[in-house]
Write a structure and sequence with these properties.
Blueprint: E1 5-9, H1 15-24, E2 28-33, H2 40-51, E3 56-58, H3 61-68, E4 72-75, H4 82-91, E5 95-99, H5 108-125, E6 129-132, H6 139-145, E7 156-164, H7 172-179, H8 181-190, E8 195-206, E9 209-218, E10 221-232, E11 239-243, E12 246-254, E13 260-266, E14 269-274, H9 276-289, H10 299-314
Parallel strand pairs: 1-2, 1-4, 2-3, 4-5, 5-6, 7-10
Antiparallel strand pairs: 7-11, 8-9, 9-10, 11-12, 12-13, 13-14
Length: 316
């Protein structure tokens, strides 16, 4: 594939892994946007050690776009910055991959309006807009463990996902906004046009745990769903999901070659595959190159994911 020029907005946290996988996919990470200019030299050194980064560091996005003219912009900035950065990148003709949630505004209504605006901007510009919710890339590995399971015919889905709190514990609403897109992306990877039946919603937000039960209508049948996301102070973290009771636990480990890989376990069976974020970024690169028609989580699916998130919040 063609080597693309990639800029990453926000590489101090999860963004450094995005940058690494773009380089691994054969792209040239030409620039990093940082919110705090005083931290840019340290970030540059970290990325150089991680994958040999030799690009430029910026604190002004307009300067970055004007000087570097990237083909792809990967947005890993705080949620509230997604919309403004994506607007600038799309208007500059860049393909955009954005961390989940696609946007998050002052209200769910504003968020949905912003997401639709981004979808339209990408369509008008003829570029790809995708969301990075990497668990959507896990289904081929899941199918290897359960070869006889007909995923589109599933009538139940259950997911439990935990994450570490940062400096301060977060409330259930904040955790849902951050983590809810991951299990929802699994549902929408199986049924991209699924509809959430709002009358089925049962929601419990308490402390640092968000729980939602609901039914989705997809491909002519219903699937009953249970999702739990929570914050923890320390690991190990639970990351598991199941369609029709076929449950897997998700972890990861570094290989002998130093490359991080996903580990999916079902009982005594274990399958080792490529890192889900690596798979999603490689597939986004193929979409930009024209080898695949759409990103794994395209704008339409990211918007539907946001609709599901908002429906749950409205039921709290």
């Amino acid at each position: 594939m063609k080597s693309f020029r990639v800029a990453v907005a926000g590489a101090g946290g999860i963004g450094r892994h995005h940058a690494k996988w773009h380089a691994h996919a054969g792209s040239d990470v030409v620039a990093i946007l940082g919110q705090h200019p005083e931290r840019l030299p340290e970030t540059s050194r970290t990325l150089a050690e991680l994958f040999g980064f030799h690009g430029q560091m910026y604190s002004d996005f307009g300067d970055l776009l004007g000087h570097e003219r990237p083909d792809i912009v990967d947005i890993c900035a705080p949620n509230g910055a997604h919309y403004g950065l994506a607007c600038q990148a799309l208007d500059a003709g860049c393909h955009v991959l954005c961390e989940k949630p696609l946007v998050w505004g002052a209200s769910t209504g504003e968020s949905l309006t912003q997401a639709e605006d981004l979808r339209q901007r990408a369509q008008d510009a003829g570029v790809h807009l995708g969301m990075c919710s990497q668990y959507a890339a896990s289904l081929p590995q899941y199918r290897r463990l359960f070869r006889s399971l007909d995923l589109p015919a599933s009538t139940s889905f259950k997911a439990e996902m935990e994450t570490l709190s940062n400096s301060q514990p977060r409330d259930a609403r904040t955790i849902w906004i951050d983590m809810g897109p991951h299990p929802l992306s699994l549902l929408l990877a199986v049924w991209p046009s699924a509809t959430l039946l709002k009358e089925s919603l049962q929601v419990r937000f308490a402390g640092r745990t968000a729980e939602a039960s609901f039914t989705v209508q997809a491909d002519g049948h219903n699937c009953d769903c249970q999702i739990t996301v929570r914050d923890r102070d320390s690991g190990p973290l639970t990351r598991r999901f199941a369609f029709n009771g076929c449950s897997v636990d998700l972890t990861g480990r570094g290989g002998d070659d130093g490359v991080y890989r996903s580990v999916m376990a079902a009982g005594d069976s274990e399958d080792i595959g490529d890192d889900f974020m690596q798979l999603l970024i490689e597939q986004f690169t193929r979409a930009v190159s024209g080898a695949d028609p759409l990103p794994l989580v395209p704008a339409e699916t990211a918007l539907r994911n946001l609709v599901f998130q908002a429906s749950v919040l409205a039921a709290v």
